[in-house]
Design brief:
The protein is an alpha/beta fold and about 210 residues long. The chain folds into 2 domains: about 50 residues; about 150 residues, Phosphoglycerate mutase-like (Rossmann fold). It contains 5 helices and 6 strands; from the N terminus they run αβαβαβαβαββ. The chain has a 6-stranded mixed beta sheet. Strand 5 and strand 6 form a beta hairpin. The relative contact order is 0.16.
Length: about 210
């Protein structure tokens, strides 16, 4: 570290300057990290703003995975219309659904077409959004336990969406398996997937909005 023959006095002079240089380098790296994180945050915020604008503009829709419902699948005695036989939203999930509705309103979407899977956790999520009347749509029902329905049901849903009037924002509350089959996106609970429908009726993912 020190040159041969260098005196103790010379070493004493150099040592503080080396310490200062190291401190300056660490400080510069810290500043760079702060700048990069700020840039990432600003980009994400701008990207989300663009997604909300797209949803308001027509020819776009939002797929929403139901809010937090602890567990996987449903009990063996599951019955549509009987919530006691199903996996349901937790208190955290209900609060999340209300926050999602507030996010819509904060982004100038007061009302929307809201359709839901017939599963109770989806219907409850849809109602807690408070964006308007909720209609149940069997095409949004989960095929987690009946995977043979994946292809035909997804094809039918794609056709249904291609014919839908999107002049008012459309929100489809459904399940992870349904969203992944349609978009190749694996959403978290309460995550929105924004979809664009082109003039030919083809669907493409514009982006996602996390709401946790």
């Amino acid at each position: 570290m020190f040159a041969a023959g260098e005196s103790n006095r010379q070493r004493g002079v150099r040592y503080p300057s080396l310490v200062m240089e190291l401190r300056l380098r660490r400080f510069a790296r810290w500043i760079l990290l702060v700048v990069l994180l700020s840039a990432i945050h600003a980009f994400a915020a701008g990207d989300e703003t663009a997604l909300w604008e797209a949803l308001r503009s027509g020819n776009h829709l939002a797929l929403l995975r139901h809010a937090v419902a602890p567990g996987t699948g449903d009990p063996p005695d599951f019955q549509i219309g009987n919530c006691t036989t199903q996996r349901n939203l937790s208190d955290a999930g209900r609060a999340q659904a209300e926050r999602i509705g507030a996010r819509f309103r904060a982004n100038a979407i007061e009302r929307a077409q809201v359709l839901s899977s017939q599963w109770c956790r989806c219907v409850e999520t849809a109602k807690l959004l408070d964006l308007g009347p909720v209609r149940e749509l069997a095409l949004l029902n989960s095929f987690f336990r009946s995977y043979e329905r994946r292809e035909p049901q997804t094809r039918q849903l794609r056709q249904w969406v291609s014919e839908r009037d999107l002049s008012q924002p459309l929100v489809l509350v459904t399940h992870q398996v349904n969203i992944t089959a349609l978009t190749d996106v694996y959403p978290q609970s309460g995550e929105l997937v924004i979809i664009r429908r082109d003039e030919a009726g083809e669907l493409s993912v514009v982006g996602t909005i996390r709401t946790d």
